[in-house]
Amino acid sequence: MRVVFLEVDTESEWAMASLGPAFLAAFLRENGHESVMVRAGIEMPDADVVKMVRAAAPGLLGVSMTTRQWLRGRHLVGLIRKELNIPVVAGGLHPTFSPEEVLAAPGFDFACLGEGEEALLDLVNTLAVGGSAHGLANIYVKGGFRPVLRKPVEPLDSLPFAARDLLDEPNGVVQISTQRGCPFPCTYCGARMFNELYEGTAEYGRRRSQENVLAELRLLRDAGKLNYVIFLDDTFTIHHPWVKEFCRLYKEEFRTPFCLHARVETVNEKMLHMLADAGCDQITYGVESGSERVRREVMHRPVTNQRFRDVFRWTREAGIRVISNYMLGLPGETKAELEETYALAEELDSFDFGFFVFYPYPGTQLFTTCREKGYLPPDYLVRPANHRETILLLPDLTQRDIDAVYDRFTELRVKRERARWGGVPLMDHAYVVARSG
Fold this sequence. Notes:
Layout: E1 2-8, H1 20-30, E2 34-40, H2 46-56, E3 60-64, H3 67-83, E4 88-91, H4 93-97, H5 99-104, E5 110-112, H6 117-128, E6 139-141, E7 173-176, E8 179-180, H7 191-197, E9 206-207, H8 210-222, E10 228-231, H9 240-253, E11 258-262, H10 269-278, E12 280-288, H11 292-298, H12 305-317, E13 321-328, H13 335-348, E14 352-357, H14 365-372, H15 399-421, H16 429-435
Helix pairs in contact: 1-6, 2-3, 9-10, 13-15
């Protein structure tokens, strides 16, 4: 069967394509099926998207979506199904944690919950012979019952390398994922929720071997497609022995620069110098809030502002650029705490930073909190998730309060860029976050 994946762009033309479909495509190809990608650019007319999907001749259309992609994805699938009589399966974060909402929308036949390689292969094999998908693990059928979950793939080394032809990786800038799962209990992030989704089934947190990761990098290098590596793991520095051995092996064979995501709780001075020596030139840290109370009580991130100061200084001293991310408009946050976030961002003085208005993603603990406290408006399901505006009805913050701090963040970023680049903007901040892992 020929499976076509639809990539739904919503943020920036600079953003890289989703890595998930590239894993799925590689697994399907290994098992005898065809897989291609159609990318719906931000400015692409709807009719052109439908035309491209038609030309790709899918036997099954797959759409991987976050909540930010959901509204446009729903819109495009509705149009496609008016023109083409093809089955559609949705996967990714949003369908995993809001499958009923997805399946209630016109055009969607199946929602894949959780990890998709084996589940999608079962679905494709079943559809190819005209069978019924009812009863397939992980596959929620429209009008059916919630499926059971199969155990996650173990070990990750058994999976084929991502299908790079589905990814937008210009100039040899490649995306690599070394692990699945996250052990931290952050209330705002969907990554942790996969652990809870699979609770009672198996341990979701797994990591590829160093040799498996290096083997993929060798293939890219030998093909002349390796100039920069973006490690996409939520926290690359979780397991110090793994990181230490990886740095040793990487340094022996590669001198390709790379960047990664880390948490300040998971690094120390020695590790930062080790990473720099192996080729790491940029690390992104999530600061999120400048209020220790908000991080501790609302976000379940009990880390001090002094720790951020120390780690940012150590990172710079190791010769690594620091990128940071901040959230505004969190439930339970006050106007004074918004000011604390701005003040800390100004003090930390990272090379670049992203700043986003909080959105409650389905499946996260903060989504449940917002629903229970009445912060979600009645029409929240049809309100777009964007970086600028809150959808929440917050008792202690107004949109005007958030706008004032957001505008100051914008001014600070422009000021920093002008100081460092002589008036030439560094790059779109959504691009910075996407490219930094």
